[in-house]
Amino acid sequence: MDKPNDNWKIWEVFIRSKNGLSHKHVGSLHAPDADMAIKNARDVYTRRSEGISIWVVPSEAVTASSPDEKEPLFTPADDKVYRHPTFYEIPAEIGHM
Amino acid sequence: MGEVQLEKRFQDYLDGENKIEPKDWMPDAYRKTLIRQISQHAHSEVVGMLPEANWITRAPSLRRKVALLAKVQDEAGHGLYLYSAAETLGIDRSELVGDLLSGKAKYSSIFNYPTVSWADMGAIGWLVDGAAIANQVMLCRTSYGPYARAMVRICKEESFHQRQGYEIMLSLANGTAEQKQMAQDALNRWWWPSLMMFGPTDDLSPNSAQSMKWKIKRKSNDELRQEFIDKTVPQAEFLGLTVPDKDLKWNEEKQGYDYGEIDWEEFYNVVKGNGPCNKQRLSDRVKAHEEGAWVREAANAYAAKEAKRKADKVQAA
């Protein structure tokens, strides 16, 4: 059996559903280059008007934080309640602030 | 942390209704089960195009034809979403496709039945997609994030598949006596294989318990089958068609239908490769893959040419 698409990179696909919203990750696909990745993404991820703009990024270009680092990276924010507006007491007569 | 502790932490995490994402630690068996299940699911979408492709050129109207084309195109897309989800587990798509083409991998047995009349397009959309949707709605809550997200997309798109099928059945059932008979004949042939799609009964489904514990599956085979029957029987009655099961009877106490014995011998026979179309489906799939080779080669040649053109431009500048 031939395996001619073995060298096709995986691309991560991001779609902007409408202007005013950011591009959002929707999935991935294979393509031989960026142009064809866009064309494939159009066929695979926007068959029902889901988007008006597509980004494709080679998966290998994504650097991700490791799940093992979850604690040191993200727990320091958990006890900093003073970063949230509800930490501060404002008299009711002031109204919304 | 030792393997036993990791597994306990993993299970606690799942029990808290949390999702597992690609880079998270997971037991090897969880990864393997998912790769097998997601790839079989992907293969089913891909092979599932074949029985319908048979009827695209013979659809009775342009309206039916564009709908069927769109449905088959969706199935190709669904196969791709699922292969992508499987790849997040560290397997290569070409390996999965290779396993399908060599006959090593399994796909849903339902696609090994022939589509002999136009009414089969109605019955497949209504019953086969209906059964698939029951399973897939459950899988929207599966514990592996990329699989669950693919399922959400697929479910959104598939509801049209079932509705277009039921509409075909409705037209035939309200047509001439001969057309109504076509619809009845399709229901007769697809009813039991559709019930088999949910897999063996719970007591004979050895992998189910572990999959339920890992929250890959959220409902048992028999539960899903019962739900499907309860939902579908009234739809058949509305069509004025008869479900081909003389033991089918409403059970007031369980608020569901009792149904007759499923022919499991037939089921295992088709799974083993002896169904009416197993050989044809596989050879059609291999043929399609081989005949598509020039498209892949052309895409490679185009990419290489574009890359060279860009490089030359940079050099000239």
Walkthrough of the structure:
The complex is a heterodimer of chains A (97) and B (317). Chain A is of the alpha+beta class and 97 residues long. In chain A, 23% of the residues are buried. Chain A has a three-stranded antiparallel sheet, with helices on one face. Chain A is built from two helices and three strands; from the N terminus they run E-E-H-E-H. Chain A has a single domain, classed as Roll (Ubiquitin-like (UB roll)), CATH 3.10.20. Chain B is built from 13 helices and two strands. Chain B has a two-stranded antiparallel sheet with strand order 1-2. The model of chain B has no long low-confidence stretch (mean pLDDT 96). At the A-B interface, strand 2 and helix 1 of A face helix 4, helix 5, helix 7 and helix 13 of B.
Strand content of chain B: under 5%
- How far do the termini of chain B sit from each other? 57 Å
Instruction: Categorize the overall geometry of chain A.
Output: elongated
Question: What is the chain-wise order of helices and strands of chain A?
Answer: EEHEH
Please identify the top-level CATH class of chain A.
Answer: Alpha Beta
Q: Would you identify the CATH H-level superfamily of chain A?
A: Phenylacetic acid degradation B
Largest interface: A-B, 24 and 34 residues
Low-pLDDT segments of chain A: none
Query: What is the structural class of chain A?
Result: alpha+beta
Q: What characteristics describe this protein?
A:
heterodimer; A: 97 residues; alpha+beta; Ubiquitin-like (UB roll); three-stranded antiparallel beta sheet; 3 strands; 18% helix; elongated; B: 317 residues; mainly alpha; two-stranded antiparallel ribbon; 2 strands
